[in-house]
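Give me the fold.
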Amino acid sequence: MPSLLAYWVHDLSPFAIRFSDTFGIRYYGLAYIAGFAAAWWLLRRYSSKQLTPLTTDQLGDLVTGLVIGVLVGGRLGYFAFYEPEVLFNSPLTLLRVWDGGMASHGGFIGVAAALWWSARATRLPWRHLADLIASVTGAGLFFGRIANFINGELWGKSTTVSWAVIFPLSAPPGTPVHLIIPRHPSQLYAAALEGLVLLVLMQMLVWKTSLINRKPGQIAGWFLIGYALMRTISEVFREPDAALILGLSRGTFYSFFIAIAGLALLALPAAALSTPVAATGAKKN
């Protein structure tokens, strides 16, 4: 086993700009901004290439709904799935956003609510909107996992691989560095699998196939199945941060339901989307 001193010791600051010990501009917040900005840019590209009938104003409303859905759903989901006792005993803890605590599975539920609202507002098939959202979600997942690594949280299981990292937060405060166990940088694995791989695959389905217009809901279905698979793989290397369910990490357990939803979308019949301009009857912005 290599000397513990041979491993890199995580010493990154969670702040991009710090004004005090506890207040500043955090990379985690910047990750959300980057994810939503990337989603907005890609959706604008879809509109300019007439892959969607949504106008610029409607895209703005959709992204706004996504922002609210991800933030509220992710926050509520974290406590509901990982710390339900805190939610019941100290509900005001939800407002302590500076202490962290977001769950991607909860974010999916929030996005589903935003999808329902957007479908009613635009009168467009919800399957088409689901495809749009699914095709850009990988960008947010990528930046979010990178921020997890910068924060030194959600570390992986102990390992002796040469690229292992010593995360000081994984040990009790005051533990000497040479006594801290090196771990997998599982946050980076997740960034690659859940973020980049899924983003590339979804973009290929958007640009290299006709699914987005001819078979609405298929891209979203494949995304959900892909996410469940990639999350399950990354969970193999991640240290569970909550009690197991049926011997499985909570991330793996909840991913089964994500996969089931994806399979349901693939099985549901859906009519092809009419041409973008004809669908809105409005000029493109």
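The chain has one domain: 24-157+179-280.
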